[in-house]
Design a protein that fits this description.
15 helices, 0% strand, globular
Length: 372
């Protein structure tokens, strides 16, 4: 009996590693398909909002989902245009921002002149701890000054911005393929239940499978649709803060903050870091960047601890530790897209495991309260 369990564990671990390797190698093929499936779940959740429009309450589900798809396409088009326009105007101003940074670092870490250097005997330094601390501090300041000067002179910010623009072009191709997949899936969704019944044959198995798919669609669609609304609210608040403080390209940073907020825990921190660092380069001082960081962090704390728990409720019942592990695994496999999709993927896995008697205990361990 023990040998059978050990063999099962080894086979399970081997299959898991193999699937992970396939996900990593086949990223370019699998990621658009998976994203299209997630998008389809968002569309079905958004179709409930479309149903509230007068005259569309009794329309077919596929029609409402199609209208929601057009709304998503329009939103992506507007966001892409804003990003490209902001980056195109940002590139010519980069040398000015780089000069501001160089001046700021020169003010913080003034260059040490040779005449100012005083040779001190090692015996005197050993006899005076304060003198030793002073010489050590001077050495650290000199090292940091040389490093920052070398970094700012060698880094090519314009080249980085051009690279970002080219990345946006490839991202546009990815979005087009994803929407194309989602459109074809949407056209075939009406006949999917009949396919499941024919595939399983047994009425009970097909019913359980359809119920599991319906739960996945409901939970993931509700989570992503609500999370998207929360991110839009956060992006608008941060945009207002940056506009009031005079930070340039506020719309660009607001979009980045909203997108990165999909990533649990660390996304909100990284999102605020971008406009804060840019504000340092724009103003050449720390006053405005610190005020902006404090206000935007406060907005994220309020939304993350007050608004988000009430709006999301129990749509995603995952343990925080499981979310961190999933975030680490999926970000390693697929980078930023994997980090964004970590919570939906893990939720789908938990629902699938909860649908089978033998794997239900594993699903209970993945959840936050054990109720699956």
């Amino acid at each position: 009996m023990l040998q059978v369990r050990v063999s099962t564990i080894f086979f399970s671990v081997g299959i898991t590693i193999m699937i992970g390797w396939l996900f990593y190698v086949g990223k370019d093929i699998i990621l658009p398909i998976v994203t299209a499936i997630i998008l389809l779940q968002i569309l079905y959740a958004a179709s409930a909002a479309v149903a509230r429009i007068p005259g569309l309450g009794r329309s077919p589900m596929w029609l409402r989902a199609t209208l929601a798809l057009f709304g998503v396409i329009l939103l992506l088009f507007v966001m892409t245009r804003m990003l490209v326009a902001s980056l195109q105007t940002l590139v010519p101003s980069l040398p000015t921002y780089q000069t501001n940074l160089e001046n700021l670092f020169a003010e913080w870490f003034p260059a040490q002149t040779e005449t100012a250097a005083v040779k001190t005997d090692m015996g005197d330094m050993m006899a005076s701890p304060s003198l030793m601390i002073d010489r050590g501090s001077e050495a650290v300041v000199k090292a940091v000054s040389e490093f920052t000067t070398k970094l700012l002179t060698e880094i090519d910010i314009a080249a980085i911005a051009q690279s970002v623009l080219s990345s946006l072009t490839s991202f546009g191709g990815f979005v087009f393929i994803t929407i194309l997949y989602a459109s074809f899936m949407l056209s075939e969704i009406t006949g999917f239940p009949a396919k499941v019944r024919r595939a399983f044959g047994s009425a009970s198995e097909s019913k359980d499978t359809l119920n599991m798919i319906a739960r996945i669609n409901h939970d993931i669609g509700s989570y992503l649709a609500t999370k998207t609304l929360i991110n839009i609210i956060l992006g608008v608040i941060c945009w207002v803060i940056m506009v009031v403080l005079g930070i340039e390209y506020a719309a660009l940073w607001a979009i980045i903050i909203g997108l990165l907020n999909y990533i649990p825990y660390i996304g909100s921190i990284v999102g605020v870091a971008f406009p804060a660092l840019f504000a340092v380069a724009q103003f050449g001082t720390l006053t405005v960047p610190l005020i902006a960081t404090g206000l935007m962090t406060g907005a994220q704390v309020i939304i993350g601890n007050v608004v988000e728990p009430r709006m999301l409720s129990k749509s995603v019942n995952l343990s925080p530790m499981v979310v961190l592990v999933a975030l680490s695994v999926w970000s390693t496999l697929w980078g930023i897209p994997g980090a964004i999709l970590a919570v939906p993927f893990t939720t789908i896995l938990m629902i699938i495991l909860a649908g089978r008697k033998g794997t239900k205990p594993i699903a209970a361990l993945l959840s936050s309260d054990g109720k699956v």
